[in-house]
Specification:
Layout lengths: L8 E4 L6 H11 L2 E6 L17 H6 L2 E2 L12 H17 L3 E6 L2 H9 L9 H14 L1 H11 L1 H5 L6 H14 L3 H6 L10 E5 L3 H17 L2 H10 L15 H10 L5 H21 L5 E4 L5 H13 L1
Parallel strand pairs: 1-4, 1-5, 2-3, 2-4, 5-6
Length: about 300
């Protein structure tokens, strides 16, 4: 396929678009090592609901940033950028090509745009915000954020508790909106090629997401969440348990009612995919591949070949 690039390659797309299959196809023709760009795959013991690559897929090509943390831990965009840059340097030094693959667009954006200097998390303040949200509800907290930081509130869903909490935390710690701090001085971002698998037909992706969630249920998602609950050290307050699928299964176990789990899980997955596509459309440098086209993987490989010359 010609001379290798001197820079890593990025492959993004919404959940269910076929990123894993595409990455493995690239690995068949290029000596890549995959760096996961996924805020859920970092957690051990969360395999079914994250659609984690199988043991055979992990063995077929080296993977990084998968199964590196316990579900009790958190993993920030800043930590991802640090780890991804370090791994990319190490992989390149081995004469191989770093291939960054995933759907956590916040990580990609932090990597491309650089990171602003934000305050460290404050556990006491976060607990206070959570307590306030328990009384008022996250949509009310989102409405407060919309008054204090309209640009940040506009890109967050009213129930995106993790990011609403962080945005309010930053305001209360610094007196400045998150959007203003993001626009201030940043660490240097990267200029790595970005390929994006995106559907031209939303219904095509919706159908795939429904099938995918049904497969997760059939393969034991509820039992996986039941086992995580049995540890005794996890709760819905943790980022890991707020992942799509896990939250809905946890709430169904709390209620002892699974009648709406499928419907709620599919709806949440569709909402996630919609947010991911919105993030991607804000990245004008991306090279779009129609994942619902007749031959998406050959089109992706052809795009790589053109890029490499």
């Amino acid at each position: 396929m010609g001379a290798l690039l001197n820079t890593p390659i990025c492959l993004a797309g919404p959940t269910g678009c076929g990123k894993t299959a595409a990455a493995l196809a690239i690995a068949e023709v290029l000596p890549v090592e995959i760096i996961s760009v996924d805020s859920a795959l970092v957690y051990r013991g969360m395999d079914i609901g994250t659609a984690k690559p199988t043991a055979a897929e992990l063995a077929a090509v080296p993977h990084h940033l998968i199964d590196i943390l316990e579900p009790t831990d958190s993993y920030s965009a800043a930590e991802f950028v640090r780890d991804a840059k370090r791994l990319a340097t190490e992989i390149s030094a081995r004469g191989r090509l770093p291939l960054l693959v995933g759907g956590t667009m916040l990580y990609f954006k932090a990597l491309f745009d650089g990171l602003s200097a934000l305050p460290q998390a404050d556990a006491a303040l976060r607990a206070a915000i959570d307590a306030e949200a328990a009384e008022r509800g996250w949509p009310a907290m989102h409405a407060e954020l919309a008054q204090l930081d309209p640009p940040t509130a506009e890109r967050l869903a009213p129930n995106d508790s993790q990011r609403i909490q962080r945005a309010l935390e930053v305001i209360r710690l610094t007196g400045q909106p998150l959007s203003a701090l993001h626009a201030a001085s940043r660490d240097e971002g990267v200029d790595w090629p970005l390929f994006s698998l995106e559907p031209t037909d939303r219904a095509w992706l919706h159908e795939r997401l429904a099938v995918r969630f049904d497969e997760m249920l059939a393969h034991g998602l509820v039992d996986e969440v039941r086992a995580l609950r049995a540890r005794g050290d996890l709760s819905l307050a943790l980022p890991s348990m707020r992942c799509v699928g896990y939250r809905q299964a946890w709430e169904a176990l709390d209620a002892g009612d699974f009648s709406t789990l499928r419907e709620r899980g599919i709806a949440a997955t569709r909402q996630l995919a919609k947010r991911q596509v919105t993030w991607l459309r804000s990245m004008p440098q991306r090279r779009v591949i129609a994942c619902d086209g007749p031959h998406p993987i050959p089109a992706l490989l052809a795009g790589l070949q053109r890029l490499m010359g």
